Amino acid sequence: MIIVTGAAGFIGSCLVSRLNADNFNDIIVVDNFSTAKKENNLHGKKIKRYVDRNDFFDWLTENYEEVEFIFHLGARTDTTEINKDIFDLLNLNYSKKIWEACCEYQIPLVYASSAATYGAGKLGYDDDEAILPLLNPLNAYGDSKHEFDKWVLQQTAKPFFWAGLKFFNVYGPNEYHKGRMASVIYHAFNQINDNGRLKLFRSHHPDFKDGEQKRDFVYVKDVVEVCYFLMHLRQHSGIYNLGSGQARTFMDLAFNTFTAMNQEINIDFVDTPLVIRDNYQYFTEANMQKLKNIGFTRPFYTLEEGITDYVQQYLNPNKYL
Asked: How far apart are CA 118 and CA 124, in angstroms?
């Protein structure tokens, strides 16, 4: 059996699809199933059992001998949330319990970290674990992911294989439930579809023109391929970046979304909201060499390819992966 936590969410449900595609069907999905995510994101997938996240550790104690692998993707991901107690409960302490269970039962583990751990990027975006303690996240969400990464590296007891994946700006099908935390591409599609226009944040940094802010946008289909690769590799434990490896501007994103929708380009710039302005990242770009060094050589979707696939195969037909 393979366990996926956060399975009803964005990346988790896409991973279940990827596993099903190669006939991995004995999947235990773990999540808070009180929302519509389950009905939409997991509809039609081959799943052995649904386990509520609050019941998971009791279930694992009884069934660990049958578990082959754990993907821990469940988390509170709202970057505007300021209640540290929520992040301590769901992102830090829950993850520690999963780590300790994997150590006790010797189950290999892949868990979700985040590029938010890099903060403003003053030390760059290199997944060298030696510099990890020096990073300074900009929000409580990034802090929670960073605290767990640091805790992991301090542990003497480890699963025989583990990997933490620092997700950059992931976009793609099945993110529809995420509201304001969904990708810019998703919001761009909806704005263009509704109004024929797109609003982008104005730059408040002297080194960046409006729309020239850059992010590492990575398609969810690439993310789940890396997860699948690591499940089979089961060596070279560590913390890895998971982005496309190429920073692209929001103007690039906008132009490609308009093009994929066969719409004329109409862009308005609005002030970045004060609540996020001071903590806004103007540049992110994953150094992907470490992952390449362990054998992942599959090419990633370009931004053009990813947006076209997302818009024309999923958003426009209103489909789930």
From this structure: 8
